[in-house]
Amino acid sequence: MSEPLVLGIESSCDETGVGIVRGTELLAHAVASSVEEHVRFGGVVPEVASRAHLEAMVPTLEQAYAQAGLDVRDVDAIAVTCGPGLSGALLVGVAAAKALAVAHDKPLYGLNHLAAHVAVDQLEHGRFDRRVAALLVSGGHTEILLVDDIASDITMLGTTIDDAAGEAFDKVARLLGLPYPGGPHVDRVAREGDGTAIAFPRGLTAAKDAERYRYDFSFSGLKSAVSRHVQHEQRMGRQIDVADVAASFQDAVVDVLTRKTVQACRDHDVDTLVVGGGVAANGRLREMVLSRAEAAGIEVRIPRPGLCTDNGAMVAALGAEVVARGVAPSSLDLPVDSSLPVTRIVA
Ligand code: KG4
Ligand code: ZN
User: Fold this and answer.
1) pLDDT tens profile 275-314
2) Residues 6+ apart with CB under 8 A from 112
3) pLDDT at position 243 over 90
4) Ligand 1 centroid to 186 CA: how many Å?
5) pTM exceeds 0.85 for this model
6) 281: Cβ below 6 Å to ligand 1?
7) Which domain covers residue 13, as residue numbers?
8) Which ligand places an atom closest to the C-alpha of 278?
């Protein structure tokens, strides 16, 4: 039997994404982002994102059809992110997917966004042939996952207890007077700075946290430390060395992310690590994860940045795996679930 042809729809945050895949082959990848509309608020405004999804959905679908040279009538199934994410935003994608499923009599699969972030790597580096670990880092996620089967068996080993990694980048960028979204700007200015200039705290890495919070993260203390540093320098009438602060903050984040992830791989005897999410574009993270993983004998797979950030191809990629395993479709009254746990891959 040939590989399943699947249409995937993503709308959990500020990207409207439509992708089409055949098995692990990418046929279409269309994304519309509303990030510009959130810039003046310094973060994603849910209502603004929902409205933008509504406006972008049909044009993005049409763009994907044009890229693939086929349309919804040709596909075997329709996959859609139904959680976790912003409820109003998720509703737009799920409603669109249901309408297409009913109109064209196609099976509908409500899928987990986090699992899709991992599945997308298969479009670039081929199928996972054994257990892999995944580090997801974006504006909304910071998770270490253990993936035994991408369509049916994922365990969350750890997550953030406060801010997501990308959120910390965005907040610190704001403290340093850099534009939103701040991650790429911090990445850029940090290149001119010294990452050892300021000893910022490494959250949840004390010996007392090694058991309960072994694979968990906390970035709010780090953010406060940066804020205190900036205020202190201002009080002393000194110029803030933006490059040094950015580099030292970035090193603190990346140090903890990579240290805990490599530890998780070691503890679970995993020799393949997938890294995804917008923060996976960070130069320092890529450098440190590669060097630390290599030293531990772990192979690192990072999809290209356009597949790391939210998109529909990742949902289609997971959908193809789910369909190939003969999993029953979701019901047509599929709800959205803003806090869908990663253990529920198909809702
Ligand atoms: O995956 P994504 O596009 O959207 C979601 O949050 O789902 O991730 C966006 C986040 C933002 O917080 C942004 O500042 C961060 O990823 N980001 C970066 C870099 N590029 C994007 N953070 C650090 N370094 C980067 N180069
Ligand atoms: Zn995401």
Assistant:
1) 999 999 999 999 999 999 999 999 999 999 999 999 999 9
2) 81, 82, 83, 84, 154, 318, 340, 342, 344, 345, 346, 347
3) yes
4) 11
5) yes
6) yes
7) 5-120+311-324
8) 1
